[in-house]
Automatic annotation (TrEMBL):
Keywords: Hydrolase, Metal-binding. Its cofactor is Mn(2+). It holds the Pfam family Creatinase_N. This is Xaa-Pro peptidase family protein. It comes from Paenibacillus mangrovi. GO terms for molecular function: aminopeptidase activity; metal ion binding; metalloexopeptidase activity. InterPro entries: Creatin/AminoP/Spt16_N, Creatinase/aminopeptidase-like, Creatinase_N, Pept_M24, Pept_M24_MAP, Peptidase_M24B, Peptidase_M24B_aminopep-P_CS. Residues 138-340 form the Peptidase M24 domain.
Amino acid sequence: MSNHRVLKLREAMQQKNVEALFVTSAINRRYLTGFTGSSGYVLVTMNDAYLLTDFRYMTQAPQQAKDFKVVEHAQRFTDTVKELLASANISKVAFEQDHVSFAAYSAYAEQLKPVELVPVSGLVEQLRIFKDAEELKIMQRAADLADDTFRHILGFVKTGMTEREVDLEMEFYMRHHGATCSSFDTIVASGERSAMPHGVASERVIVGNELITFDFGALLDGYCSDLTRTIAIGEPDAKLKEIYDIVLEAQLHTLENIMPGMTGREADALARDIITKYGYGDMFGHSTGHGLGMEVHENPRLSKLSDDILQPGMVVTVEPGIYIPGLGGVRIEDDIVITETGNAVLTHSSKEFTVLPV
Ligand code: ZN
Ligand code: ZN
């Protein structure tokens, strides 16, 4: 009575000589069990898979976490973990060191004695990198919603509005169409603010004859999309049209050539080499892309430093940009899935240079 994610996790545990794993990350908990409640812990051994939660969830948890033994934990949940480990004769349990504060670790170590705690990293995250068919379906819906939101906002945005008003409309649209919320703080960066790669929507008024960068996504059924488009409203500086064409060339070239077997560094270079060739290499200060899934930034990384090898089933972003301080910037981002032969693009919003009337 185990799902394929638990079976894969057990293989990873065996490779690391881990007999039992105690999962505290909320996202990893949801990934393994399907349980969407706000509180719970997962304990996986070679023979059993438990979801520990409290009385509030004793109806919901067994319905969602079908392959798990759902246990209502004691007031101190570590007492229940200790009991379960003792009944299986397990004296060592691995914990997710990246998701446990020092204070929590100290408490667990004390309360679980004489069981020994062993720190591990990324056991579940390594599984999450590869999306199965069911996950890809959800991610396609999250991508479609981002595309719909962009189309909607093109008919909404006008000069005289603040960036925050536009942000709010995007948030409302996404939630109205099924999103839990935006997958991160929406970037609406107009005018000289578009030169800030992380220009979260501000009180700035959109005045016209400038660029606007929208970078946003929907969190839908637990998965994120992440889309960036840059448009003009009125006639911006000619230099900005020039960098738009360069970023678009770099982005399209990367989409055409990304394939399995490539390293993150090689994928990054596909975009970076073109931008550098035109003399803007030092104005492209971030990496070309990142993994995407239940979190908006996951592995693999598409960066100058990344040795990650791209493989079928990975979902990544491709988002080169050029930023000229004081003038403006351009970024264009799509979400893609690596396939056996290349990649498939999940987001489809137009990348033609769009000029809205002032
Ligand atoms: Zn983005
Ligand atoms: Zn991104």
